[in-house]
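Need tokens for this chain, all 218 residues.
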Amino acid sequence: MDIDDILAEVSGEGLPPETRDLQELTRAWVTERSAPELLPWPSALMERVLGRIHQQIELVEEQVGNIDPKTNFRLIIIQTELERFKFLVRSFLRTRMAKIDKHTLYILNNPAESARLSPSELQYARSHQALLEAHYRSSFLCQFPTSLQRLDDTAGGISMIEQPDVDKAVFVRVLRDVEEPITVEGTEIGFEMRRGDVYVVRWSAVRDSVLSGDAELT
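Here are the structure tokens for all 218 residues:
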């Protein structure tokens, strides 16, 4: 098996819908863990996955207590598949929540970043920031002058808001040929991305290729 065969399997062509969704969810999880910034919420994928999890839970609950050995064996398979999906969903959400916790103000103050959240994540981010600010104010900010109580102060040209490090190095694998050469900002480095290539490069240089599906993080 060569790299073309492996990439053909990754593409998911000819696979059952649930298998394709499992592959997409796994890829989304790995990419989210590797990327230094929050990625767009995969609404269509998550809607399908969560709907399938709900259906499988209902099926298991209906069949519990059935003494037919064949049915019991089928339930074991369904429960195993169910736990695999649930593990990936939990891990995916934990990864995103960790980024939200770390960069809450940056996300809430930038409409483009806020648009990457699901409605539940946006509600969580706002509640998290409100609780954090209330805690800080009651603990120590109330003792500071009013001018020093802001958590998003930019006095002196230095911002208190922590931003993701978009120049962090990431491992990226090319899934499709990228027509335009990739350039690394601030350097003279440039290269062409061809199917099957693997690079270690700044996230900012390959962000668009990853988001478009031409490449994936590993």
